[in-house]
User: Fold this.
Amino acid sequence: MRVRHGTGRRGPSGSGGRRVAFIGGAFAASLCLSACVLDADKPNIALDIPQSYKEKHGAAEAAVPPLDWWRGFRSAELTSFMEQAQTANLDIAVAIAQIMQADAQVRIAGAPLLPTLSGNGSDTVTRTSAQVTSAGAGDYSRLYATSLSASYIIDFWGKNRAALNAAEETAAASHYNREVVALTTLSTVANTYFQILGAQDRLRIARRNYNDASRILFLINQQFNSGVASDLNVAQQEALVEMEQATIPPLEETLRQNIVALAVLVGKVPERFTARGGGMATITIPKVTPGLPSELLDRRPDIRQAEEQLRSASYSVESARAAFFPNIQLTGTLGVESSALRSLFGPGAWFYTAAASLTQPIFDGGLLLGQLQLQKGLQVQYLQAYRKSVLSAFQNVEQALIAVEQTNAQVEIQRKVVESSRRAFALSEQQMNFGTVNMVTLLQVEETLFIAEDALAQDQLSRLLAYVSLYQALGGGWPPKVGPSPLPPA
Assistant:
């Protein structure tokens, strides 16, 4: 939108009629020149939405994930970290700043739909050369002027409206991007916290196993001194003790590094951050089912973001297409001018101008056509990105359901392995005291128990991470739907 200033006078009678005739002729010509771009093609979504998930078990509505899905784990500390991350995480803060920028772009894109007004005031002093005056001295003259100018571009073809709609859809996409960032951040917080709990459990197991191995080594040394055990038995047990001791530093490293990572996620300085943790036994396994695949299109923020980007690209195609048509602009100026300030607003000081102009692109070296093709290419890109986001969402849910099912089964199996190994170890140690068990058998049973206990802790951690992945795949919680409806499948 342009603003025209000036103090020109009204043209001679009849010029307005010729101008209208010219605009009408150019308008008719533009219809012929722009006929090739009238076909406003729409993207064909062509989505294949299944009726239910392949890996779903039970009723779809059994346990709908709430907005604060992390509360299902029943951990007050985890809930506290989640709340801190929502307000202090810097990635979320960046996404919020991007929303502010996108909303500002909407205001900028909407400005051409409104007329522009501008005021102008001037005080001009002119000195005439002394050589052109009879008195031999220069003359001074002064002109006061003030005016109000207006300009308006008629959005007859919808170019500016389409640009505004594209900006609005882009702003909506930025809002969904914030939800994507928040969901990713909260899932990372949960995973990091569970990694801390898993490291704490494995450290307890490693230290207990180290103490048990040291105790058995003491007993074997007593038997060696009594001539019952051999050097090989002592060396084997010493190796097992050292092996258990060697597992402690890597677990300490994992624990401390995850605490540092969690501090950054919640916007804290690592030196002033602590995580109490406690162990995975304090965590409740939630009940969650995926619902229907068709509902995922409403619930996943990344799908909604891709949808809004596709909508924005479609409006951008409309705007680029409308650029082939003529541009019609109305301008006008109303003001007063006088050589004396006291008569500035007198009856004879008023003036005005009014003009209508039409601009029709005729030859631009392929600029407009290239811009249209560019926007069409972006539309195809976002269409394929939207399709992929939907398919990826279905994939994420299916894989998460498989992981939840299999890790639950693995934990139950491994728990039985640990129970049997503990019973075997207790019997072997008892029989060793009575000298009725082969030393090799004792060492094998002991090593089996240590491995089984550590494997159980790892399986329990994998199960918790699988539930977090399922929540993330479902889009977090299930808020009420807002915004436009998803694009219908073709």
